[in-house]
Design goal:
With 177 residues, the chain is of the alpha/beta class. The protein has helices spanning 41-59, 75-95, 104-112, 119-129, 139-155, 158-164, and strands at residues 2-7, 12-21, 24-34, 63-67, 99-102. The longest helix has 21 residues, at 75-95. It is globular.
Length: 177
Amino acid sequence: MVILGIDPGFAIVGFGVLEAVPGQQRLIRCGAITTPAGVPLPARLHQIDDDLTILFEQFRPDAMAVEELFFNNNVTTGIGVAQARGVILLSAERAGVPIFEYSPSQVKLAVTGYGKAEKRQVMEMTRRLLKLSAVPKPDDAADAVAIALCHARSYTSRLSLLDSARPGSGRYAVRND
């Protein structure tokens, strides 16, 4: 399974592409989509959509994992990020890529085993789990890789494989007699 992890933003959109099989993940590529400051927001959103389209075509992901919106103190920035996130979701939907959303605490829990881990701990565990020589740069790319890793560890776990074998999950026919 190829997973595209996305850390949404409008100035910088981090991305990480992982190949995942149960118990093993491999980083294929990571980086950031950057949009220039001073350019009107609609043009920046258009660039994000164009660049995501290229990523979808180049890597043909089986799933996109994206971080849920988290508002800090700056509501103005949060609104721009929300608009960018909408474009990101639309791009994935248009490409036919299933979307999976994770909260920051879900990402921390999946990567470090602790839902309140510090950012540096998440980055270091991401590096270790993927056997990388260094933490991916920029930070937005490292965050996106962690989001993809969260999905890989959640989706390919034995628990999710057991869930797929349950009646009503699509594997067995459900009768309504």
